[in-house]
Amino acid sequence: MAAARLCSLRRHLLWPLIPQRGYRGDSPTDSGKDVLEIPLPPWQERPDEPLETKRARLLYESRKRGMLENCILLSLFAKENLARMNKEQLNRYDRLINEPSNDWDIYYWATEAKPTPAEFDTDVMAMLREFAKNRNREQRLRQPDLEYLFEPPR
Q1: Torsion over CA of 131, 137, 143 and 145, rounded to 10 degrees?
Q2: What was the pLDDT predicted at 10?
Q3: Is 72's pLDDT higher than 60?
Q4: Would you call 45 helix, strand, or coil by DSSP?
Q5: What percent of the chain lies above the pLDDT cut of 70?
Q6: Of 128, 123, 64, 68, nearest in space to 92 by CA
Q7: Does the pLDDT value for residue 143 go beyond 60?
Q8: How many CB atoms lie within 10 A of CB 51?
Q9: At 107, is the pLDDT very low, low, confident or very high (cuts 50, 70, 90)?
């Protein structure tokens, strides 16, 4: 007991004298000049794309995101909704997942952590927000397997 107290006292007294190491993420000397910004090409609507090709592309793009949270959320949403969306809804979904340059924005809008900008606040965004609420309390821990693509439509 006395040894533990002595060790704790020694650590308490010596702590300010030991140089601290670690990354805090807020370097006051960082100029930011070494940050490379790569401009993304602007989103373009594909009016002549066949619907089945669009659905397949959107399914792929829903699964291959920049962050795991959106991979899971959007791939499960796509599985449940893409097949029954009409052409206009597919175009709005395409714009929603491809125009914003930051995947966190989509996630925050879907989970209502941040308000959705007016240009993205559509019926498709409302469907995604409702889906994200997970009212049935399903386990959503990974993307769906692709076998469902080969099942007959319900």
Answers
A1: -110
A2: 54
A3: yes
A4: coil
A5: 71
A6: 123
A7: yes
A8: 11
A9: very high
| Cα gap 67→64, rounded to integer Å | 8
Amino acid making up residue 40:
L
Q: Is the dihedral of CA 118, 122, 126, 129 positive or negative?
A: negative
Contact status, residue 73 vs residue 107, Cβ threshold 8 Å:
yes
pLDDT at 20 over 50: no
Kindly compute the dihedral angle of the four CA atoms of residues 44, 49, 119, 41, in this order, to the nearest 10 degrees. -20
Report the phi/psi class of residue 134: left, alpha or beta, with left for phi > 0 and alpha for psi in -120 to 50.
Answer: left
Task: Give the mean model confidence (pLDDT) for residues 99-113.
Answer: 90
The tokens for 130 are 């409702």
Residue 2: Cβ within 10 Å count: 6
Query: Residue 53, by phi and psi: left (phi above 0), alpha (psi -120 to 50) or beta?
Result: alpha
Q: Which two tokens stand for residue 8?
A: 């704790």
